[in-house]
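ok new one. same drill as before - structure tokens go in, u give me an amino acid for every spot. 107 of them this time. try not to just spam alanines like last time pls lmao
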């Protein structure tokens, strides 16, 4: 999944992706935002699922519910009921890129 990361006119971090991954961008912007601790927590949960330490995990945030299991990550927009399904690897990579971008713009 290719992600374009940038700051908008007000300086907020933004993510742009193909339309089929639109909720991944929304998840980064509205759920993780600039919270590096939450991003790190999500990465640890993904690792635990990949290592079969836990079977699944789910949490509802500001706008989206994220459901993780061994097969996939589901992002469900609670307002529109739109759902994006991505691999754990794709979500993990998106979070890592987001964290790196946050670090870059905070310096």
């Amino acid at each position: 999944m290719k992600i374009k990361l940038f700051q908008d006119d007000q300086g907020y971090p933004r993510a742009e992706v193909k339309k089929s991954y639109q909720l991944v961008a929304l998840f980064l912007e509205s759920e993780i935002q600039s919270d590096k601790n939450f991003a790190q927590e999500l990465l640890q949960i993904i690792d635990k699922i990949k290592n079969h330490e836990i079977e699944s995990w789910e949490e509802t945030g500001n706008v989206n519910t994220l459901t993780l299991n061994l097969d996939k990550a589901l992002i469900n927009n609670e307002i529109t009921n739109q759902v994006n399904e991505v691999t754990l690897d794709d979500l993990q990579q998106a979070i890592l890129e987001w964290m790196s971008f946050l670090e870059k713009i905070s310096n």
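The mean pLDDT is 95. and btw Residues 4-106 form one domain.
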